[in-house]
Specification:
The chain is α/β, with parallel strands linked by helices. It is built from eleven helices and 13 strands.
């Protein structure tokens, strides 16, 4: 398959280039950047030297790039992918958007949370969380790659919601991310003296991933979900650890919880169930496409506590995009992603 990366100079874009290099059936034909047009990508990211030394192009002629590609991976801020999708509507090229433009069924919700007018409302799109939407992804023209916090959160809670084991009005998700999730652009809060030796919450009750998590869980469980999601920033480059809480319904046992996780994720290579009373850690998934999940039952409060860990740039972004690409191309889903995490 001929693939192109639109917005290749962000962290997720650079991670895509690393993964595409190791993919035996992905032929990289175009990479773009509006801020670094005509520069060599490996001059910006020396770790790609000898691996990807392509010149960055502009998207001014996006129709030509689209006509020359089987798949476009788009790693641009909110509001940009939908314009590309609209321009390429008549071409057979398929789109995997790592941003939020195509994640929502209801574009009014997107506009409310992202403060951006949606210009491609009629686009036929599929939510790109591979383990839960695989059948729809296979034939989708536009795939809205799931977000990083959302991937860790939805995968942690989905088995409980699907089997109706918890009161969905009681779900609380407390998640911590490495700073690469904030992007590569220079921002004062991410400046080393501000970030080092610090730990903070942000976006309390307002984070944009909240409605994305609610949408997926409502779809899985068949009932409306309203939850609290609080993100935190920790002084590390990669990784997300999400701690999710919910009150168990009357009569639900620890064995019921175990069975829900085992039934939903049976045979899922990239979901590693660590089991009851386990403690997943970000270091155990670093640089990989795995999501590690463990859960605990608090008998005293009759609540379940689920811990999930991912690498935000791989399973939370570029790796998930490659996994979706494999599904949509009818390749082995593990192709280009079948490697162990980096440790320590």
């Amino acid at each position: 398959m001929k693939v192109s990366v639109i917005g290749a100079t962000g962290y997720a874009g650079a991670e895509l280039l690393r993964l595409i290099y190791n993919h035996p059936k992905a032929d990289l034909v175009h990479i773009t950047s509006e801020s670094h047009t005509d520069e060599i990508i490996s001059a910006l990211y020396p770790h790609l030297c000898g691996i990807c030394d392509k010149k960055l192009e502009s998207i001014e002629d996006i129709e030509k790039i689209g006509a020359d590609s089987d798949f476009l991976f788009i790693g641009l801020p909110a509001g940009h992918a939908m314009e590309i999708g609209r321009k390429l509507d008549g071409l057979p090229v398929r789109i995997i958007d790592l941003g939020a433009d195509y994640r929502f069924d209801d574009t009014d919700i997107y506009e409310k949370w992202y403060k951006v007018r949606h210009t491609h409302k009629e686009a036929k799109r599929v939510y790109g969380l591979a383990e839960l939407y695989r059948d729809k992804i296979k034939s989708a023209k536009i795939i809205g790659n799931a977000g990083c916090y959302t991937t860790a959160s939805i995968l942690a809670v989905a088995p409980l919601v699907k089997k109706h084991l918890v009161d969905v009005k009681t779900i609380i998700i407390d998640a911590k991310s490495g700073v690469s999730g904030a992007g590569r652009s220079a921002k004062l809060p991410n400046h080393f003296p501000e970030l080092y030796d610090n730990f903070k919450a942000y976006g309390v009750a307002t984070h944009r991933h909240t409605p994305e998590i609610e949408q997926a869980l409502a779809d899985i469980g068949g009932e409306e979900v309203r939850l609290n999601f609080t993100p935190h920033l920790v002084p590390m480059s990669r990784g997300i650890l999400a701690t999710s809480y919910a009150t168990l319904k009357d009569g639900v046992t620890a064995d019921d919880v175990d069975a829900a996780f085992n039934n939903l994720y049976d045979g899922e290579f990239f979901i590693r169930l660590r089991g009851r009373n386990a403690y997943p850690e970000t270091k155990y998934v670093r640089g990989s496409n795995f999501c590690d999940i463990g859960w605990h039952i608090d008998e005293r409060t009759h609540r379940v506590i689920v811990l999930s860990a991912i690498d935000n740039l791989v399973k939370g972004a570029a790796g998930q995009a490659i996994q979706n690409f494999n599904i949509a191309s009818d390749f082995d889903e593990k192709m280009g992603l079948d490697f162990a995490p980096i440790y320590p």
